[in-house]
Amino acid sequence: MPNWMPDFPENYDFKRVEEEVTAFWDKEKLAEQTIGIDESRPLYTFLEGPPTANAPPGLHHVQSRFFKDLVCRFHYMKGFSVPRKGGWDCHGLPVEVQVEKKLGLKTKKNVLNYGIGKFNKLCRDDVFTFIQDWNTLTKRMAFWIDMENPYITLSNNYIESVWWSLKELYSKGLLYEDHKVVPYCPRCETPLSSHEVALGYEEVTEPSITTKFRLKEVNRYLLAWTTTAWTTPSNIALAVGTDIIYAVVEEKGTQYILAKDAVERYFEGPVILEEFRGDALVGKEYVPLFDYFVGKLDKPAWKIIAADFVNTGEGTGIVHQAPAFGEEDYDAIKNAGMAFVQPVDESGKFTREVPDFEGRFVKDAEPEIIAQLEKDGSVFRKENYTHSYPFCWRCSTPLLYYALKSWFVKVTAYKEKLIEFNQRIEWYPDTIKNGRFGDWLNNVKDWALSRNKFWGTPLPIWECEGCRHITVIGSLDELEAAADKELKELDLHKPAVDNVTLVCECGKKMARVPYVIDTWYDSGSAAFAQFHYPFENKELFKKFFPYSFITEAVDQTRGWFYTLHVLGILLFDSNAYKSCVVGGLVVDEKGEKMSKSKGNILDPIAVFDKIGVDAVRLQFCTSSADNDKRFGYELVRESVTPFITTLWNVCVFYNGLIGIKEQSISGLKTADKWIISRTNSLVKTFSSEFEANNYHRCFEEIKQFTMEDLSRWYIRLVRGRTDDAVAYTLNYVIAVLAKLLAPFTPYLSEFIYLNLIEEEAKSESVHLAKWPRAEKIDAELEKWMETARDITQAVLSVREKIQRSLRWPVKEAVVVSNDKTVKAAVEGLSLLIMDQANVKKITLQSEFREAKTSLKPDYAKLGPVYGDATPAIIAHVSMRGAETILRHINEEGYFELEIDGKKYRLGEEHFIFTTTLPEQYDFADFKQGAVYVNKEVTPQMETEGFVREIVRLLQQSRKEKGLKKSDSADIYLKLDAQAMLKLQPLREQIKERVGAKAFVISDASPQSSDYKLAKVHTVKGTKIEIFFA
Fold it and tell me: Which of 250, 446, 736, 991 has the most neighbouring CB atoms within 10 Å?
């Protein structure tokens, strides 16, 4: 692409920009130059959170990939080597559930009948179904990352590294098997980890019941509240708190027992017959609600036990215990040595042990269970209860808490270290550290690792069929040695890996346990497994780890951020990452979640095609990274489009200059020096905000600078200039803007940089250029110019009041202020202010001597302070002159008077001031003072205004005819004789300003037929006809 484009487009066309820039990048292999390791640069490491390619990417993926690209580009321009390797998450429930749907399989048994080998082959194929869509999106949005050599979690090398890590945990005593109640998906038929559960909570409203359990020894009923009525057939015990005070309440001849603190929740005007501590209830027996297990248990059941988790915050203070379906229930029953029952199978259906509901899914059977309890008179109260309930994060099935054998990672053993190391991470926003993430660590649980599924990293544990000895395999070499056979070509997935058996020291066969592992363990291993560590690339891993930067959306605080953190500490005693930017969710323009049912989902490629990649990227910077991002076309048009259009128009203006002028640093005027200083101040602020991850503030700063400082002020200041210094200045400013914007708008920045910018040792691409450094800052000049703009704006406010257009001059502006900066601005920039405000004269005064100020006491303010003395104060004030009172207030800050020997101090707030101006003046305030404008008009001023109107109309007509700045034209102006005489002396001046080759002013129509009427206007009653030849 050329260094300068003579035909730089008048209008921004993102399609052309993207096409031409993409062609340039592809030809020069620009991305490849930046995404590898450059030994000559210090290292800044980034870890890609691996997506799964079994579904097409959405707009939320664009946001996270944008933030990744943004930060990596920035640090590359700052001089770092920023290797960027893509990755694919290939295992687990997301893949299995989708394949099951395609095959119409609904249960684990269906999969087994279909064949694990065939099923897993389809999973392997399905995981890359949409890889081309992902690659297309990645390239189109200009996310520069190595997608040709990604890490893939299904590869043998990756799995081998994961196996190594599991053996490390086992050797540290951190991997163990236990029978526990765990979160469980009955549809997927597998346990889930606590961080997976956290991904799927929803608000639900469902029945809750308070049931009546009759004591055996006395005709009293224990009341217990539950939100899971389906567990009542499995009730084994009731739990009480030993220190809680319980009460016996009588209602309609029946006596009930519940916590005293809960009585008013259940009874109106209760009669309490008796009170006692909870330990008086422990050991007492009661009649079960159902008789399914009566006479069939080998351990005690249906007794009251003590438990420290019982409280009176909700319910009755008596807790129903079903040990197979509650973690606390399980532990309490186990500690009490009581019976364990589990009449629900792995698909969440009642077994034959509960014949009335056999084969029914527990949630579906719940209404009938409640109905049966009501029929038996066992329900004291039934009501709807709204609460947060966990659903499977992949298939949306309500989860159960279910007792089964699982393998766990003992994360709780490192709880304090997890919390300690969290303090070393730079979180954005910082509230995540001790908020969402910190809270999660404070309540950390052991990681339920094993999954009763098929497509995943196999748990590398072999167990002896005889002595139950355990062997944990940490590599393929270890497996070969243990199996005593060549296994180099073995696919480390089920069913192939299950066919490998070992021989125990006792002589019996060892088979692999049937589990695969949590897919979040796979992605959490990316930090080391992408290198095939420790089998290869040990030194390279050490250079990368811990990673400088990661980012994903807020849901990953309980997902990938967490698993990376855990494995970094458990395996390497180190943080896995140094900084983490947490993105918000992407919602529609109304702030509602995007979903198919609402019809508000936007396809990323379609969005790119409609508004362009750069606009989409910028829209994600309209609020802080952690905020939910409202996205819609109208929002982009409101917040992003004006900025891009303004920047483009500045470039068009500059392009018109460089076509006719050379650049020169000599002859820089005040306006040029000011905008160069402001540009460097922008660099300083912008860079600081970027380092703080405040990307939205970066956009705010550059938007404000471009639209206000550059376009609305500097361009306005230099629009009449065509000297070389303007060309130099704009080249400098636009070059800096292109570099600052490069990480945000890679296409637009590149197009501008390549086609407009001239630099010594210019880089091949803006993305290879060095990040700008802040220098040449003149803070004093910036203050002066800000003040000059304020004064100018104040004059324009007066103009608006008196309805006098800017093209028509005003006689005088009197600036009234005692501020030093105002004094310096007026003295140093008076000509600039006069030009921009179109004022013939400007003066500075400490007070406006032409104004007459009167004042009167404000009774409403004096009365509450001085009470009965107020009338006397008002009378004394009225005898003093306003000038005297004002002088005291201005000099001393108050006016003091004495009445009957008592002194009273009155401040400015105690008076109502009225300023009277001479008829020819009007005024407006600004931050440090006020401006008084003389409205008088002279004939000469009228002529000047008329000329400006004529010039504007002629330039407008030139533009409408498609003439460029460098094009000359023959122009004929027809108007009445009086106006003609007024303009004739100024003909040459007008001719030069409108770029005319020949310029005629006449009160008659042109004789030559070459002249064609272009436009007819009326200016203050004068008809003006414009002809072009």
Answer: 736
